[in-house]
Amino acid sequence: MSSIGRASVLIGAGTIVSRVSGLLRIVVLVAIVGSVGSAAGDAFGLANQLPNNIYTVISTGVLTAVIVPQIVKAAAHADGGRAFVSKLFTLGTVILLAATALAMIAAPLIVTVYIDPTKVAPDQIALATAFAYWCLPQIFFYGLYALLGEILNARKVFGPYTWAPIVNNVVSIIGFGIFLLLFGGPSPDVLQWTPTMIGLLGGVATGGIVLQTVVLLVFWRRAGLQLRPDFRWRGVGLRHIGRLAGWTFLMVIVGQLAGIVQTRVLSGASGTGPAIIATQNAWLVFMLPYSIIVLSIGTPYFTQLSEHAAAGRHDEVKSDIVRSIRVLGLFIVVATAALAVASVPATRVFTNSSDEALAAAPVLLCFLVCLLPLAVLFVVQRTFYAYNDTRTPFFFTLAQGVLVAVTALIAGAAVGAGALPLAQLAAGVALGQSLASVVQVVVATVILHRRLGGIGVRAWLTPLVRFVLVAVPAAAAGWGVVLLCGGPEGWLSASVVSGALGAALVGSVVLAVYLGILALLRTSELEPAIALGRRFLPKR
């Protein structure tokens, strides 16, 4: 608990500040471009998501899966891995520059891939393309940030990678605030946007990512490494890395293709109801507990798990799996219950009215179906990575990607047939993604269980079921608070501030009841969880 606990708290505290400031960023952005029913908001949301998609390919698809275990191994070299890291960094920089240049050239084509021209007006496509030219340079800086951050994580320097996004959020909040002072808002109509407005909004979004990357360079010496350009890429195992990365590239490409299908389906609701940007914002709220809980606790576990796997200590790997899932599950289950009960006030944070919050809340609820399964998948998938197996995750991710695309198309067809209201299209797409993720984690767990000769499924599944049962009365208590406050349409969703305060109030009640019941049941997982929580408090 000592090193894992300290690292988890460092990452968790940074993630909390990062996500809270990120929510403030969303609030200001929504005040500019709108949310539900905003064609301009969907145009910016699409353009700004494009570099994020590339970041997902680089970070999730390659670095986490391949680079961290390889850097851990390279640390045993005579030079402590310095030559390996320099060669890797040089190669990564060259690839990122090339990818960014190609993306800029192909910007109009990329936008039309994500938007169905038969369902979206040409003016909206033109606005999305204009935003894309400003946002696509983020690819280089996102990739550089991910590469530097994962190298720091592999060297057990966890803080900077987690705290750097706060700089991006602060810059964005200030920049978006200046935009509001100059041009006002919201501006949901695509015809309202001038080149100056487009340049300021896109420039602020990209500038924040640039500074976020620069922050990591400031802390680089703490890793005990010296970076220098090194184009001699032979002889350090890059071919082996390429083979491993090949499967992860294919895996993430599957996810991106599924995402393209989702976005094209969602574009059919743009300008009329929850669509692209509303779904993105619901996903960001959904990811708040995932980022704070899963990444802060799971990232140090992954580094430790990689060390145990590299040393052939398989029993310790199994113990890492059981411990991490049980601790993650305790927190994730209560977060799911709290967000479900407070879905309307939580959604009010990224909408401009209570009516919009009521319309967008079902999207968040549908995403929440897969919050606990994704926490389990985080551990299971990274165990494959720790054993340098990126081939198997590709196949169970392929199944998930196919299901995501198929369910999105089904939702779109249901709207076309009149079986699903257009206002619920985004919720249908979100539910399909959640169900696909549930299938994915079941398949992945079965495969890993057979691969390692058991991963203690009963030892972690039984506590998860118990946590879910305990969360039911806790959620009921939270719903009682919602009703006492006038219901979902009461003061809890009257404004952005009341939505945030209401969500915090309901969440606090759910958490208190949940922990109280667990304490009465003398739940063994509660002690390490409380010890972890105490580390967030001042010494005195």
UniProtKB/TrEMBL annotation:
Principal subcellular localization: membrane
Keyword match Transmembrane helix: yes
Keywords: Cell membrane, Cell shape, Membrane, Peptidoglycan synthesis, Transmembrane, Transmembrane helix
Domain of life from the UniProt record: Bacteria
Bilayer topology term: Multi-pass membrane protein
Record-level GO BP terms: lipid translocation; peptidoglycan biosynthetic process; regulation of cell shape
One GO CC term, this protein: plasma membrane
GO molecular function: lipid-linked peptidoglycan transporter activity
InterPro entries in the cross-refs: Lipid_II_flippase_MurJ/MviN, MurJ
Subcellular location: Cell membrane
TM regions (residue ranges): 7-34, 54-76, 88-111, 131-154, 166-185, 197-220, 241-262, 282-303, 324-346, 358-380, 392-419, 425-448, 460-484, 496-521
Protein name per its UniProtKB record: Putative peptidoglycan lipid II flippase
Organism: Microbacterium proteolyticum
